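User: Could you walk me through two proteins back to back? I'd like the raw sequence and the structure tokens for each, with a short line separating them so I can tell where one ends and the next begins.

Assistant: Of course. Protein one, sequence then structure:
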Amino acid sequence: QVQLVESGGGLVQAGGSLRLFCAASGFTFSTYNMAWFRQAPGKEREFVAVSRWSGGSTNYADSVQGRFTISRDNAKNTLYLQMNSLKPEDTAVYYCAARRTAWGSFDYWGQGTQVTVSS
């Protein structure tokens, strides 16, 4: 049974930091591309960052580039998102997702963790 369980969300003041965790199970984590998405109230879900299993490359949305860092620990089957210099517009539910292929839709999704940044 595949599971992605996010944690680490919470309430933080603007300029602060949070670290999100995504614990994966039920599939071969080390061979999956892993990503973070977020969805703010009244808005569509948007891409935040991706970590590719082959080559270890990463990509970020322009809105978080230089402030967020995605990383993974394949030995622990865990994906991370370090978020620094948080802004009120970063407020959203953050989801992790897994995809076996390089492109296309994501196969598995977590339930999300709420991040709220106060001004």
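----
Protein two, same layout:
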Amino acid sequence: QVQLVESGGGLVQPGGSLRLSCAASGSILGIYAMSWYRQAPGKQRELVAIITGGDTTNYLDSVKGRFTISRDNAKNTVYLQMNSLEPDDTAVYYCNADIMTISTKVSNYWGQGTQVTVSS
């Protein structure tokens, strides 16, 4: 059984910063791509940032230059540093990862989500 547990969400004023963390645990042999999605009320879930096993990154255009995705493979953890936050960044943020377990099967997993609210 694999679990992804996010932390670091909260309420922040416009222009502020937050750092999200997502730790994977369980019978893990390896983790490939890790990513962050978000879903605002009434909107579809969208990909915010992705980091491959080779540390290649890609970002949603609206967060480029403000958000940074990184990973610590020793801790099976992915981070999202969010700076210069805007009200439009308000959403539930979800961690996602492609993980190989001891069954040697690669499956896709989601975290439970963490709320980020940007408001004055």
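The first strand starts at residue 2 and ends at 7.

Let me know if you want the two compared in more detail.
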